[in-house]
Specification:
The protein is of the alpha+beta class and 220 residues long. It folds into two domains: 108 residues, C2 domain (Immunoglobulin-like, Sandwich), CATH 2.60.40.150; 89 residues, no CATH class. It contains nine helices and seven strands. α4 packs across α5 and α7 runs antiparallel to α8.
């Protein structure tokens, strides 16, 4: 289990290094790294690393380069994302005359991840709604796509999602363009909470209504 502060997640990656084992602890410490794999916690679209198994690329080369983030962060980290680049014997020139890092094609390394967060989502559609102000032209589509987001992911961000919906109504109170879409989204959320699977979130919704709801222009 690794705990990463929320403000650091966007610039954090995990690096896995491999050394030879010996019968001597002191010799283990002196052994150089012979292979390395890495994975970023955030994806380019702003969502987090997907839960589940990841087949990581193993790199070999100079041990100092294997520990130098600037030498490998621009390279592919997962096999299934860049299969065409990972042909047998392929290598990547990292900078100028520096030695290349080569893909270790004979070895494989898999990890399984589970992200636990109430602030970072793995769903790009939900992220689009929560950050709707950054791309207002996509708002209609993001509201419609909310109904396709996994219920568990929406429930996890219940208060943030409700805040976003009521903010949309407040900031567009002079037009009814989004009214029906927001209303449908609210009905979708209430139905989720009414589902037996999410019944324990009833108290969260009640608390939101009593303590957090303050969208006066959206009251009706």
């Amino acid at each position: 289990q690794i705990a990463v502060p929320i403000e650091d997640v966007h610039r954090t990656h995990l690096r896995f290094t491999f050394r030879h084992r010996s019968s001597s602890d002191s010799k283990d410490r002196s052994e150089r790294i012979f292979s390395m794999a890495f994975v970023r916690l955030m994806r380019p679209d702003g969502t987090t690393l997907r839960d589940g198994e990841h087949d990581l690329v193993l790199y070999k080369g100079d041990s100092k380069k294997l520990e130098d983030a600037s030498a490998y962060l621009s390279l592919p980290s997962e096999r299934n994302l860049s299969e065409s680049k990972l042909l047998s014997g392929s290598s990547f020139r990292v900078s100028g005359a520096a030695p290349a890092l080569a893909v270790s094609t004979r070895d494989s390394f898999q990890i399984s991840t589970l992200i636990c967060s109430t602030k970072l989502t793995q769903n790009v559609n939900l992220l689009g709604l929560l950050k709707w102000r950054s791309k207002p032209s996509l708002l209609c589509g993001n509201l419609q796509k909310l109904m396709n987001v996994d219920g568990g992911e929406v429930i996890k961000f219940l208060q943030d999602t409700l805040d976003a919906l009521f903010s949309i109504m407040m900031e567009h109170s002079e037009t009814d363009v989004y009214d029906t879409l927001v209303f449908d989204a609210l009905v979708f959320i209430v139905r989720l909470v009414a589902d037996r699977k999410f019944q324990h979130f009833n108290t969260v919704l009640e608390a939101y209504i009593r303590q957090h709801f303050s969208a006066t222009l959206a009251y009706k």
